[in-house]
Amino acid sequence: MPKLSVIVPFYNVQRYAPDTLRSLRLNARPDFEFILVDDHSTDETPAILERAAEDLSGAARVRLVRHEKNGGLATARNTGLDAAGGEYLTFLDGDDWLAPGYLTRLAGAIEELGCDFVRTDHVQATARARTVHRVPHGRRWEVLDPRGAILPANRTTSVDYAYAWAGAYHRRLLERGLLHFTDGLRTAEDRPWIWKLHREAESFAVVSLLGVFYRRGVASSLTQIGDARQLDFIRAFDQVIEETAADPDAARLLPKAVRTYCAIIDHHLSDEAKWEPTVARQLRSLTAAAIQRMPQDALGDVLDTMDLRRSARLRRLRRRITTAKAAS
């Protein structure tokens, strides 16, 4: 069994893939496994992966998997999970990169702590600028209950730091069905995933490791494109609400889930200029319907405690569909 499996999806990242693959080479060990998933790229990415797989195979175990059609990041990660054989697992996106030796330190940390998963800080790279982003949890190098890190509802917590590649995960989570993503989600795929981990895993820790470089401002990234794929955040957060509502501790956890969903809706509405006009109309309609689907008691409390600007925008959205129903 490999010590660590690293799952790396690629889709049309010919400009950035060489940096990503070079960083894997600088982290390679014979007991590490790199699973490279080509999500049906249409540029030069497949040829780059072919050459890299051959180069990497002398230093680590390498598997190159190709999709016959593009399925999105969640589906590509699931393909990697299905192929992974490691005792521990982690992720990297095809346009990001790692510091030399980072994976050895990451595998050592989770093995030393013996917990289900660990979370790490990361470096955000925008052009030449570098900014450190910390896991929003103060206690470090200490094994804790993941459920206890979901709250409080009115603060940024571990479930808001949803990056799958910022950590490592024990294989027992894969065997329990906790590591797969919702198939087909094009955006916000990490959100139901991180909530599920924190509700259902038994132990986790935050470790002070820096080594993942997250590239921002990539023109082909969905965060930069205002097309209909971004609307998948609604399906992702609907899933968070539905699964959290079924939790035995729903009364305590739902206000956090609802508050986060409302904050994300407000974020997208406030950035409406980036959307294609037809998608902007869809956004307003679908988010109004989402507001109506939320647990209304929890929603009322959230709107009463949010800042006035966001609360006013969301209340207008809530009234819109209520008025439409009354008119019909």
Description:
The chain has eleven helices and eleven strands. It has 328 residues and is of the alpha/beta class. Helix 2 (45-56) links the parallel strand 2 (32-38) and strand 3 (61-66). It is globular and about 60 Å long. The termini are far apart.
Strand-helix topology:
Layout: E1 4-10, H1 17-25, E2 32-38, H2 45-56, E3 61-66, H3 73-83, E4 88-91, E5 97-98, H4 102-113, E6 117-120, E7 122-126, E8 129-133, E9 167-170, H5 171-175, H6 190-200, E10 204-207, E11 212-216, H7 232-245, H8 250-270, H9 277-293, H10 296-305, H11 308-327
Parallel strand pairs: 1-2, 1-4, 2-3, 6-10, 7-11
Antiparallel strand pairs: 4-9, 5-11, 6-9, 7-8
**Which runs of at least 5 residues are low in confidence (pLDDT < 50)?**
none
From the spread of the alpha carbons, the general shape counts as globular
- Termini, distance in Å? 62 Å
* Adjacency order of strands in the biggest sheet: 3-2-1-4-9-6-10
**Biggest β-sheet strands, sense, barrel:** 7 strands, mixed
Average pLDDT reading? 94
Kindly estimate the percentage of residues that lie in beta strands according to DSSP: 15-25%
Proportion of residues in helical segments: 40-55%
> How many extended strands?
11
The tally of helices reads 11
What integer value in Å does the Rg equal? Answer: 20 Å
Q: How do the helices and strands follow one another from N- to C-terminus?
A: EHEHEHEEHEEEEHHEEHHHHH
Structural class: alpha/beta
List keywords for this structure.
7-stranded mixed sheet; 16% strand; 4-stranded mixed sheet; alpha/beta; single chain; globular; 328 residues
